Amino acid sequence: MTPTNARYAPEKHAKPKADGRLARGEATREKVLDAAERLFAEHGFEGVSIRDIAREAVVSLSVVGFHGGSKDDLFLTIFQRRAETLNRARSEALAELRARKGAALTRRDILEAYVLPYSRMAWSGDRQWAAYAKLIARIATDERWYPRVREFFDPIAQDFLAAMIAVDPDAPRDRLAMAFVVSVTAMLSVVSSNMRIATLSRALGAEAPTDPAWYNAVLIGFCEGGFENALRVSDGT
Amino acid sequence: MTPTNARYAPEKHAKPKADGRLARGEATREKVLDAAERLFAEHGFEGVSIRDIAREAVVSLSVVGFHGGSKDDLFLTIFQRRAETLNRARSEALAELRARKGAALTRRDILEAYVLPYSRMAWSGDRQWAAYAKLIARIATDERWYPRVREFFDPIAQDFLAAMIAVDPDAPRDRLAMAFVVSVTAMLSVVSSNMRIATLSRALGAEAPTDPAWYNAVLIGFCEGGFENALRVSDGT
DNA sequence: GTCTATATGTAGATAGAC
DNA sequence: GTCTATCTACATATAGAC
Predict the structure, then answer these.
(1) What is the pLDDT at residue A21?
(2) Which domain holds residue A134?
């Protein structure tokens, strides 16, 4: 697991000064945000105190407040910081596919363009991007936080849904919406529960899969088959 | 949404006294556990204080400690309290199908036997069972809590996986494990995010689905198609 | 920009009266 | 069994020195 992926590894968000180094305050700010990102990803918002963050970042307590503002602000800032990079990766993946395949675009292609940027991020080998991926998985089903961060994710989701509709204009919209939400949750769950998948595999006598490409392939296969079957009009039970 | 389902509505876990009424202490205990269940489901473990629970249950602070023990104990007790009922419903559903269909059992049947008892519970119209369903969805992907409650869920999951293997003995075990975990997450996500599905449906110009049977049908359809596609050996990307 | 010090509130837990 | 009262620890936030 966790092969390095150059795409995400070098990503840093502080602006370098003219001389190429970060301003001192800027570097501290990054340290604080990075520490908060890791801890929030691991323990959730309420499970982390500002003192924990200060300790993890190796700064004093009030430095966290200075750079991060209130605890709520700090949490939102962490989302904001990387959202654009992820969104851009997804948009570019979709645009590239559209350019290359045109009308031959399939649902599988669209799913890949949505899933793979996130997957690469989660398994990039960069612990901050991995933490961010976990954090997204954590808040996506959280009714308290999702409304406050949806602005970062919903627009791109709309684009992908539009692409799905273009592939099959007759698909019932409600089923499409549900298949999409379920697919997104499935994607997030693979990152947050690959430990469970590994455990369960071993319990069944198989080796625990370790290759991200394997997880991607099975996940995308699952969602592709799921979409197809869910969109077929039929009412059971 | 939320039609009453008699199966779960009358469920109460305190033992009645010989005269048919609950002992006073027992009734208080139930009040405390019910309040904790609702609040933990809504706000998570760290998001709820013992004082919150006391207020919700309309008892004094120390009564919560008296009946619930430590906060950790209280949380685990809530899980324990209803786990057996849910497990029994699932086992019975599977046994009934096996008796009725024998070797003609399908993956779809097995999925239904796993999903429907949970779905009925979540939408039973009883707010405590609904809260319990939300609580399960909340901790299922929580690395801190899942190890402490898996004993309540893993045995039954093993039974269902065994049934899946019986249907298709050649299915690769690792893919089976992953398809199962993803299906379970999908099931849980429908309960915790049906608001998002509804919102997204409206955004696409459809009405927001309100019928639990519709959610069940689309979900099971999705998982069925997902399983089938995920188990096929093929490696993309 | 970063520190120490502290104001102010709330957390979990329990002792002891009734 | 249930209450009031309180212990001790830790929370967020910020004022003010350097």
Answers:
(1) 52
(2) 82-231
The CATH number given to whatever domain includes residue A207 is 1.10.357.10
Reported confidence tier of residue B181, pLDDT bands at 50, 70, 90: very high
Nearest to B197 among A143, A144, A178 (CB): A178
Q: What's the longest Cα–Cα distance across chain B?
A: 67
State whether B149 and B201 are in the same domain. yes
Determine whether the distance from the CB of B47 to the nearest atom of strand D is below 7 Å. Answer: no
What's the angle, vertex CA A209, arms to CA A208 and CA A214, rounded to 5? Answer: 165
Contacts of B97-104 with CB under 8 Å at 24 or more apart are: B98/B163
Distance in angstroms (rounded) separating the CA atoms of residues B30 and B68: 10
Nucleotide of closest approach to B74 (CA, C1'): C12
Residues B94 and B146 placed together within one structural domain of the fold: yes
Q: A38: Cβ under 7 Å from strand C? A: no
Structure tokens at B87: 């497990």
Six token digits for residue A204: 């069944």
Which one of A141, A176, A192, A207 makes the best mutation probe of the B interface by having the most chain B beta carbons within 10 Å? A141
Mean pLDDT of A138-159: 92
Task: Give the closest residue to B183 by CA, choosing from B96, B80, B112.
Answer: B112
Tokens encoding B234: 């093929």
Q: What is the pTM of this model?
A: 0.90
CB atoms within 10 A of CB B192: 21
Same domain, yes or no, for B49 and B140? no
